[in-house]
């Protein structure tokens, strides 16, 4: 089934690039650089003006079907606050949906269309509520509120929860999150900030390679 395949592929990839920007064109270019650097899971946030245009363009450029293909990448939508927006992103080509918080209608909409959904959670209550609705991956957000030790603490009573920290993950602590049992990690501004300051987008590919290398070394 496609949904289960995508969830496994995201887990295997290990790193999700969370991309924001001022225009669809900017986000598409940043995504291309991240993919060139080896990050194969791209989350286009709905804070980007005309974000669905970027999702559609990237969905046409890349495919999740064959991990060995040159055009392999998984394109999803982030910062999805409601079910209406979730449906728009799915129609635009998003293959997974991420929310900063828990919204029952968004989860149910994604389940209806068999699209992986990753709602944000801050509390155990949030996590349990997500599990009760059949959520496969829960976004721990903001991740910088916690240390990696929170994952084994949560998995004590909730071993069935797949947790993806986002926010505060960087090259210095990625290995700690993965060793602690993170399903995957979300990377935000740390991937792009140096490139945006300097105007040198090649830095995005370089940073992406560093993240993937760090992930592979930790998993080895």
From TrEMBL:
Per UniProt, the keywords (alphabetical) are: Carbohydrate metabolism, Lyase
Q: Which SUPFAM superfamilies match?
A: Aldolase (SSF51569)
Q: Which GO terms describe its molecular function?
A: (4S)-4-hydroxy-2-oxoglutarate aldolase activity; 2-dehydro-3-deoxy-phosphogluconate aldolase activity
- InterPro entries registered for this protein in UniProt: Aldlse_KDPG_KHG, Aldolase_TIM
* Listed EC numbers: 4.1.2.14, 4.1.3.42
Keyword Lyase carried by entry: yes
Keyword Lyase assigned:
yes
UniProt pathway:
Carbohydrate acid metabolism
Task: State how it assembles.
Answer: Homotrimer.
* PANTHER family to which the protein is assigned, alphabetical: 2-DEHYDRO-3-DEOXY-6-PHOSPHOGALACTONATE ALDOLASE-RELATED (PTHR30246:SF1), 2-KETO-3-DEOXY-6-PHOSPHOGLUCONATE ALDOLASE (PTHR30246)
Q: Which NCBIfam families match?
A: eda, PRK06552.1
The UniProt family comment states: Belongs to the KHG/KDPG aldolase family.
What name does the UniProt record give this protein? Answer: 2-dehydro-3-deoxyphosphogluconate aldolase/(4S)-4-hydroxy-2-oxoglutarate aldolase
């Amino acid at each position: 089934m496609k949904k289960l395949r995508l969830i496994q592929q995201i887990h295997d990839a290990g790193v999700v690039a969370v991309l924001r920007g001022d225009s669809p064109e900017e986000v598409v270019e940043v995504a291309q650089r991240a993919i060139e650097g080896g990050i194969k899971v791209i989350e286009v946030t709905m804070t980007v003006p005309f974000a669905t245009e970027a999702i559609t363009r990237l969905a046409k450029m890349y495919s999740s079907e064959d991990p060995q293909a040159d055009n392999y990448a998984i394109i999803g939508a982030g910062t999805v606050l409601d079910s209406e927006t979730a449906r728009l992103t799915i129609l635009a080509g998003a293959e997974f949906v991420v929310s900063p918080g828990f919204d029952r209608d968004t989860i149910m909409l994604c389940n209806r269309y068999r699209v992986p959904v990753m709602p944000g959670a801050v509390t155990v209550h949030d996590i349990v509520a997500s599990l009760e609705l059949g959520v496969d991956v829960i976004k721990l957000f903001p991740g910088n509120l916690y240390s990696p030790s929170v994952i084994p603490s949560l998995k004590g009573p909730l071993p069935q929860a797949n947790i993806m920290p986002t926010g505060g993950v960087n090259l210095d602590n990625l290995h700690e999150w993965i060793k602690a049992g993170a399903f995957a990690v979300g990377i935000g501004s740390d991937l792009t900030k140096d490139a945006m300051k300097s105007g040198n987008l090649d830095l995005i590919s370089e940073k992406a390679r560093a993240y993937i290398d760090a992930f592979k070394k930790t998993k080895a």
